[in-house]
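hey all, quick one before standup. I had two proteins in the batch that finished overnight and I want to keep them in one place so we stop losing track of which output belongs to which input. First protein below, input sequence then structure tokens straight from the run.
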Amino acid sequence: MFMILGVPGPLLFGQVLLGLINGAFYAMLSLGLAVIFGMLNIINFAHGSFFMMGAFVSWMLLNYLGIGYFPSLILAPIIVGAIGILLEKTLISRLYKLDHLYGLLLTFGMSLVVNGLFRNYYGSSGMPYDIPGVLNGAQNLGFMYMPIYRGWVVVAALVVCLATWIAIEKTSLGARLRAATENAPMVQAFGVNVPRLVTLTFGGGVALAAFAGVLAAPIYSVNPNMGDNFINTVFAVVVIGGMGSIIGSVITGFGLGVIEGLTKVFYPQASATVVFLVMVIVLLARPRGLFGRMV
């Protein structure tokens, strides 16, 4: 067995892979948060609940309707995104002209209600969601065995993050979104339906969280608390990357996942706090975040 820095190679690479897996979820969840905050200026504290809802919807589609994993990757984000649109139209849209604190309090309350409803109906114990057969097993890479599904999660997350960045930064729709955040009345004067654009943006951010939830379902047990395990770290990722920064959320999410994984190898006691230690250091050196813009 070969060693790297005194650590068995398979153990080190295994933790790097685990860090990439966690980083994939950090990136997708923080990306949704960044889209919603960057375009709507709403701090969505219910984002972890939408992540959990994505996993639950995929579980319900499978167990109640017999709809498998791959269709759920499309259907669950659409369903949860539609729920997000309904909540935006009925509740969140009333807060856009108020202080950020009101949006944070509303979405925090929404999170408590949603989590409580699922907990009362399904309980707190996790429910299994099987890995699809085509993604089962492991691949021998020579230096380690990589579970195929976990590799799929990293690739799928990278593709979704890249597609989202292209849609926002390189398309006419993204240009309208960015312009609407700077000067909504002017954009509306050019015939763009800004309220509809805002609603679809919120729904899209929620759908990203739900997509991450579907990917997470076979790895973690499907339970009402699964979003709570990620959301604190995800907010730290958003702050480190820069509030509202798309590329900052993606790079920071994957980077912190790997740092967290390596910390579990070399100094396990700090693995639960290393992300927040990095956040403190970054905020002291660069208060707007690594990729944040000057206000």
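OK second protein, same deal, sequence then tokens:
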Amino acid sequence: MPSFDPETLRADFPILSREIDGKPLVYLDNGATTQKPQCVIDSMTRFYSYENANIHRGVHYLSREATDAYENAREYLRESLHVPATHELIFVRGATEGINLITHGLSSQLEEGDEIVLTIMEHHANFVPWQVLAKQRGLTLRFAGLRDNGELDLEDWKSQFNSRTRVAAFTHVSNVLGTRNPVTEMTAFARERGVLTLVDGAQALPHGPVNLAAVGGDFYVFSAHKVFAPDGVGVLYGPREILNAFPPYQTGGDMIEQVSVKGTTFRAVPERFEAGTPNISGAIGLAEAFRYLSGIDWEAANAHEDELAAHAASELEKIPGIRVFGSAPGKVAIVSFLYASAHPHDVGTILDTEGVAIRVGHHCAQPLMEYLKVPATARASFAFYNNHSDVEIFLRGMKKVERFFG
């Protein structure tokens, strides 16, 4: 039965017991990457200690064992994400590679004058690849704006569609504002108009399970390192009939059907897009992270995260000169703010002296910064393992910032 006790779960993450210059680590940079529970670390250590071998092509015992572990990881993720078929789940290096794979595949299918709809809140990973594709193919990009509270202006988004719209790409959750977009409604709207959709789920999965059957989009991507799992691996989900029509993204071993001096034929998905030796241990660690997360009561975990973030935001707003960005209903536990008296980098540097890790800068979302008319923000992003002590230490650090610059 899933349960939730933040202190018990916190003990599962060895790095959270660290001290920085004699002060307890307060890790509030979860939007950039999440920490890893001991069971994930152990699963990868076990693989390298006892099972390490290359997969798919070996006939010896270790190769068969490693292949089973890798493919069992894929199957477990398929079940967890409610993906219809195992071969529609492809291991990539992360959300960024997944999106680049899709833009590469669509390149030959889009014609000059076709249009792509994005939102202004997109991470660069879901912005730049489309921008490059548009320049290469003579496409038009359209951008939907936001409401004052950081919520997507859904009517503005819908108004960007026309007879030339071919793709709509949008984030599930904003990495800056924490806004949770109505992705099921958005994918349904696009589907009714014959428009392909890609959802960037990198910031959604750290805050609870996602049912891709319910989301209903064509493509969904996420990175493992943001879901309490290893870096260098991620997932792309997409329909096999679409993906099999794409040309290979990379070529090499294991993705071929037949090679001769006269030419090469290629395998179907998922192998079609998993050239060479994949991140075997990363896939195993990702599946282990999903097993770990399945034991959490996410309703309680989200309430805990929201309470921490709401308290932090409320106290920050009491400091003269601080502006907090994003208050959309249902947002996740991300608090982005700007202090008029200090650059975000100065805020982050002073907090670091107190052992507090936050993110500062444009957060790979420069178009959003320009839209908000700010150069950068400071961002505290919370996970279920954060606690009230973390918030109080963070707020004491901000009082120190205020003494320096107020």
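Flagging for whoever picks this up: The chain has 14 helices and 17 strands. Residues 61-81 form the longest helix (21 residues).
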